[in-house]
Amino acid sequence: MTAPELGEAALAALREAFGESLSTAGAVLDAHGRDESGLEFARPGAVLFARGEEDVVRLLALAREFAFPVVPFAAGSSLEGQLIPPPGALSLDLSGLTGIVEVCPAGFLAVVEPGVTYPQLNRALRPHGLFFPVDPGAEATLGGMASTNASGTAAVRYGTTRENVLALRVALADGRVLSLGSRARKSSAGYDLRHLFLGAEGTLGVITQLTVRLWPLPAHRAALRGAFPDVTAAADAAARVMGAALQPERLELMDAQGLRAVNRHLGRAFPEVPTLWAELTGPSGAALEEALSLCAELFRDAGARDVQVARGAAELEGLWEARHQAFYALRALYPGEVFLSTDLCVPLHELAGVIAFTGAQLQEAGLDASVLGHVGDGNFHVLFHAPAGDTGTWERIGVTYDRMVAETLRVGGTCSGEHGVGLHKRRFLRAQHGEALDLMREIKALLDPLNILNPGKVLPDER
Amino acid sequence: MTAPELGEAALAALREAFGESLSTAGAVLDAHGRDESGLEFARPGAVLFARGEEDVVRLLALAREFAFPVVPFAAGSSLEGQLIPPPGALSLDLSGLTGIVEVCPAGFLAVVEPGVTYPQLNRALRPHGLFFPVDPGAEATLGGMASTNASGTAAVRYGTTRENVLALRVALADGRVLSLGSRARKSSAGYDLRHLFLGAEGTLGVITQLTVRLWPLPAHRAALRGAFPDVTAAADAAARVMGAALQPERLELMDAQGLRAVNRHLGRAFPEVPTLWAELTGPSGAALEEALSLCAELFRDAGARDVQVARGAAELEGLWEARHQAFYALRALYPGEVFLSTDLCVPLHELAGVIAFTGAQLQEAGLDASVLGHVGDGNFHVLFHAPAGDTGTWERIGVTYDRMVAETLRVGGTCSGEHGVGLHKRRFLRAQHGEALDLMREIKALLDPLNILNPGKVLPDER
Question: Looking at this predicted complex, what is its ipTM?
Answer without folding.
Answer: 0.96
